[in-house]
Amino acid sequence: MRAAGLTVYIVEDDAAVRDSLALMLGLAGYRTAAFADAEAFLAAWREQWTGCIVTDLRLPGASGLELQAEVRRRRSALPVIVITAHGDVPSARAAFRAQAVDFLEKPFDDAQLRAAIDSALALEERRLERRDDAEKLARLTPREREVLECAAQGLHAKEIAGSLGISPRTVEVHKTRIMEKLGVRNIAELVRFSLGAK
Amino acid sequence: MAISNPMIVRRLRDAAVFAPCYIALDWASYIAPVGPFNITPWNPQPALAIVWMMLAGLGQAPAVLAAIIAADVVVRHAPGGYLITATSAVVLTVGYAAIARALKALLRQLGLHTARDLTVFAAVVLAGTGLVGAAFVGLLGGARLLGDIALQDAWLRFWLGDAVGVLVTAPLLLAAADPARRAALLELARRPEVGLQALVLGATLWLIFAGLGGDPAHHFYLLFLPLIWIAMRSGMSGAIVATGIVQIGVVLGIHRGGGPALPVMELQILVTALTLTGLFLGVVVDERKRAEAGLRESLRLAAAGEMAGAIAHEVNQPLTALTNYGRSAQMLLAGAGMPQLSEIIRRMLQEADRAADVVRRLRDFFRAGSTRLAPVEARELLEAACRMAESAAGAHSIRIEATSDAPLPALFIDRLQVELILRNLVANAVDSLAMSASPGGRITLSASAHDAAHVRIVVADSGPGIAEADRERVFEPFVSGKPTGMGLGLAVSRAIAEAHGGSLAAAPRGHGEFHLILPCAPPA
Question: Which residues does chain B have within 8 Å of residue A85's beta carbon, measured at their own beta carbons?
């Protein structure tokens, strides 16, 4: 099952296609939200939305590609999957240039669609993890960050104390606070975290 | 022997037709002879020999040789003695055979339909007759049979006589041998304008040789006017006939004007120039007409393509929804222990896939003209087409059946696209029979070998067929004979057949009959 909070946002003007997509994806265990056009989606959009967008290429009003561009302009990283009943090469190229995850031709194979959604959501999960890590790092004091950097290089408490000009006892206190703030249990996790956050 | 006997009989029979024609033509054109060897300024008979060998094969060379010898004896009384007659006949036969061989190898079609073919024809004929003339005159010169005529002069006369004879006569003979050209000529004969053109042409000839008096060569240029008119209006077919009439007119004029008193050589040079002008103008006019027709058709097909794209989009939406609902139903049924229902839904989805495939191919075809070729058995294809139409035909008590010559090579086609053609043709046949007054009727689908690389599929029905005037028109997009027809079926069908390197045409029969030519798989 997917991480909580991830939603598949369906933007499709054809009511039957929209309804059937939401039903099928819902049965397959995805949380879905459906919109009839790009404008409706953009009006409802919140910065904290996470998941992925599945949009038709041809929509009344703004097209799927324009929706994709607007989402990027708003600095949202929501991955986009474009579906179309009119698979043409220029649109596909434009979609991929704007970092679409996939470009599917209607009627598509449901396995294909689910694979595309899964890879989009996996992308989103990694992004969210990185974002959480960045937030946790931001909570460290400057001194704690110095200690973390030294620890990440594999230095012992005594060596850190020497290079920072503080007592080894204080270094140990900092380390405990860092591990608390970052939510890691041991030094190994601490090292891994600092590497991943870079 | 059992095999060669009928072949020999056939060859002898063909030769018995050819030889008298050749001698008669030689005799008819035996005018204004020069020198003791009687070189004439107009020799249409080589055209007959060349076209004959092009059509019947080089195996006819002995018959040509015999005809040339016989003509020399009958028409000219073999002035150089029998040995010279035989030797010169061999030279001519070899030369004409070489020209025939070269034309057959280089011409793409017999009917001289393109400027390229016409250029090749004119070049081969001019060069070939020049070489034949050199050999022939050289032989006579060597045997001191030219009398007081210079070798060069004799060669020029011979060359001109043969060249103009072949240039004027061969296109007529080739036209008669080419079905498309023959049909065009027959159609031409029915146009009232053509009568007027012939009248003007005849009047101009009379003016030149009698009306205006003096040297006919001085007024010869007048002939270009009616010839240009004819070529502009009737294309190559008109030009071929008109140049033939001019040549005959010139010959009659020479006869009437007292033969050698007239500048026969000069007239023949003018006829050559006129002929080449007329033929090239005619072929260019034809090519332009073809290009126009092609453009019109492709514009219409582009419109049809737009429409197919729009339809594909509209049909794809419900197909997508249908597929999604089907998958949802499958998910709900998983583990519910209803295998029968699961199976029904699986088949439903399979059909939705098939429909999507048809729509995709149709759109693909218009988009890129792309086809996915694979070997398909003709018999199987026809039987499938019959099965598809059975219920519709049965509703009108129409009998439908497929026959095919066994064994046929496999077709090399895009099955879905060709099925579309057959479905179209059969549906049209069913509609035509259903609309006719008498109930019932019969539709037959048959396949037979067309040539080494193609199979012909004939879809025939016992209905009234298509009116002669509409036989080509029905293939234009948005032209339909049916009250509710969109007029796309046959246009798309023909486009598909041509994209395969085949063709689709309505046969001129008293009943409905379409001929679909498709390529076979290359031998494994």
Answer: 312-313, 316-317, 320
Query: For B232, how many CA atoms within 13 A lie in the half-sphere containing its CB?
Result: 7
With CA atoms as reference, report the closest residue to B280 among B228, B220, B221. B228
**What ipTM was estimated for this complex?**
0.71
* Distance of alpha carbon B179 from the chain centroid: 5
**Distance separating alpha carbons of residues B102 and B121, to the nearest angstrom:** 9
Cβ–Cβ under 8 Å, residues B278 and B270: no
Query: Which residues in chain A have Cβ-Cβ distances shorter than 8 Å to B316?
Result: 85, 106-107
Q: How far is CA B18 from the centre of its chain?
A: 23
Q: Which residue of chain B is at minimal alpha-carbon distance from A25?
A: B328
Strands B513-519 and B503-506: antiparallel
Residue A31 phi, psi dihedral angles, 5° rounding? -85, 130
In chain B, what residues touch A34 (CB-CB under 8 Å)? Answer: none
Question: How many other C-beta atoms are found inside a 10 Å radius of the C-beta of residue B440?
Answer: 11
Cβ contacts of A54 on chain B, cutoff 8 Å: none
Contact B388, B423 (CB under 8 A): yes
Query: A24 and B328 in contact by Cβ < 8 A?
Result: yes
CA distance B269 to B217: 10
- Whether residues A86 and B325 touch (CB distance < 8 A) is answered with no
Residue B449: Cβ within 10 Å count: 15
3-state secondary structure of B496: helix
Region of B457 please: left (phi>0), alpha (psi -120 to 50) or beta.
Answer: beta
Residues 6+ apart with CB under 8 A from A24: A110, B324, B325, B327, B328, B331
Amino acid at B287: E
- Residue B453 is given by DSSP the state T
Render pLDDT for B7-52 as a digit per residue (tens, 0 to 9).
677 777 777 778 888 888 888 777 666 555 566 777 888 888 898 8
Distance of CA B488 to the CA centre of its chain: 26
Q: What is the pLDDT of residues B356-405, one digit of tens each?
A: 877 876 776 665 455 577 888 888 888 888 887 887 788 888 888 888 77
- In percent, the amount of chain A with pLDDT more than 90 equals 20
Q: How near does any CA of chain B get to the CA of A21, in Å?
A: 6
Residue B165: name the closest of B258, B255, B42 by CA: B42
Interface residues on B facing A, Cβ-Cβ cutoff 8 A? 309, 312-313, 316-325, 327-328, 331-332, 352-353, 356, 360
Q: Provide DSSP, B397-445.
A: T-EEEEEE-SS-PPEEE-HHHHHHHHHHHHHHHHHHHHHSSSS--EEEE
| Alpha-carbon gap, residue B300 to B366, rounded angstroms | 12
What is the distance between the alpha carbons of residues A128 and B409, in angstroms, rounded to a whole number? 62
Which of A18, A19, A27 to mutate against chain B (most B CBs within 10 Å)? A27
Query: One-letter amino acid identity for A14?
Result: D
Residues of B in contact with A86 (CB under 8 A): 309, 312-313
pLDDT at B152: 83
Cis peptide leading into A107, omega within 30 of 0? Answer: yes
Q: Is A21 part of the contact surface with chain B (CB cutoff 8 Å)?
A: yes
Q: DSSP states of B65-109 as a string? A: HHHHHHHHHHHH--TTHHHHHHHHHHHHHHHHHHHHHHHHHH-SS
pLDDT of B327-345, one tens digit each? 999 989 888 888 889 889 9
DSSP B376: E
Give the pTM: 0.54
Give the SS3 label for residue B493.
helix
Residues of A in contact with B328 (CB under 8 A): 20, 23-24, 27
The terminus-to-terminus CA distance of chain B in angstroms comes to 33
**What's the residue count for chain A?**
198
Q: Decide if B325 and A106 are in contact by the 8 Å CB cutoff.
A: no
Q: In terms of residues, how long is chain B?
A: 524
